[in-house]
Design goal:
Number of domains: 1
CATH architecture: Orthogonal Bundle
Distance between the termini: 52 Å
Structural class: mainly alpha
Shape: globular
Strand content: under 5%
Number of helices: 11
Oligomer: single chain
Radius of gyration: 17 Å
Amino acid sequence: MKKLLLPLLALVVTSVTSLSVLAQDAKGDAKAGEKKIAMCVGCHGIVGYQASFPEVYKVPKISGQGAKYIVSALNAYKKGERKHPTMRGIGEGLTDQDMADVAAYYEGHGATETNATGPAPDPSAKVAELVKKGACLTCHGPGFSKPIDPSYPKVAGQHADYLFVALKSYKTEGNAMMGRANGVMGGVAKQFSNVEMKELAGYISKLPGDLKTVPEARFR
């Protein structure tokens, strides 16, 4: 079964990558993006800010995230592949160029800021088995911070509660208000119980990485 799953995973990854490239042709301008982030800073520009839907969790750190992943995520919200009312509304209001500009801005945002996460902790035997079972590093790369394709996210150091909610969303089906449609991540997430996903998210959140929340001057 494992021998069959890996080639299938590679095929799906290749297909998703090809579609992502087509959707990300616009070249981003970080300076232009700085003028287009008014809809972002109210959540992503406040350290520790929490969302309340579909449950309470810290909104993801997006400063330092890969630009192509940000574009991919925004497009997924726009198309309804990711079901979150607020984010879908934002995505629907952005052109391809807007997305590219905002993504370029956040990719380099806070590059001079310190991200004090410390050395990488060793995973417990159970977490190591979960990482192996999900083949997580196949896509997210060493340390969960060097994805093999730029349209995949860096997740090292991301908030644990956000990671847990995101993983659960890939298991959600038939709900008009929440859930994420992604064949690869859906297949991965459905292997795990909620308890296992919470353990995995907790470990990933402690890893050093590029992600951070850089507060806007008005929120400092």
